[in-house]
Amino acid sequence: MKSLFSGFYGVDDSDAKNLWNDDKTVFIFDTNALLLLYRCEKETRDAFFSQWEKIKERVWLPYHVCLEYQRNRLTAIKEHVMELENAGNHLTNKAQVALTLESLDKKHSSTIRRYESLRGQLEKLNVELKSTVDKFVKEQISTRIDDAALLQS
What is the distance, to the nearest Å, from the Cα of residue 22 to the centroid of all Cα atoms in its chain? Predict the structure, then answer.
């Protein structure tokens, strides 16, 4: 059974190195592998294409893979952008209510309400949290959305 389904058992490092370096090895990618490149970090894409340059003469892309890729490329990018936007919105919404008196249970809320300085500090902390999350969304998520938009062209 193991010899019939050897792909399920992996290879050791030396066999993998031999396969990688063998001029007779052909690399075949499916559509999902190619579309996944739109859903990963830029550094991951760059690393992939760096390796691609080394093996490009031994890559074979079946016609149907290329066809599916072309049909689904823009959808994959749009879905990726929507996922990022939803994540940013979710973080922003969570931060807006995270440290408010209303978000606390009754016992803790009433304790903090008794101390004016605690209420003020909690409000200040809430503003700082919102600011930090807004900065994170702008610098981390929005930049990835902008990068994805460049991929559409």
Answer: 33
> Distance between CA 65 and CA 104 in Å, rounded?
52
Where is 115: in which H helix or E strand?
none
What are the CA-CA distances from residue 139 to residues 20, 88, 110, 145, 146 (Å)? 38, 11, 37, 10, 11
Q: Which of 19, 34, 32 is nearest to 6 (CA)?
A: 19
Amino acid of residue 126:
N
pLDDT at 59 over 70: yes
Q: CA 17, CA 15: separation in Å to the nearest integer?
A: 5
Q: At 88, which helix (H) or strand (E)?
A: helix 63-98
Task: Determine the structural domain holding residue 65 and report its residue range.
Answer: 25-151
Cα four-point dihedral sign 131, 136, 137, 142? positive
Domain membership of residue 131 (yes or no) is: yes
Strand, coil or helix: 27: strand
Residue 99 has what pLDDT?
84
Across 23-31, average pLDDT: 96
Residue 6 lies in a domain: no
The sign of the dihedral angle between the CA atoms of 45, 51, 56, 58 is: negative
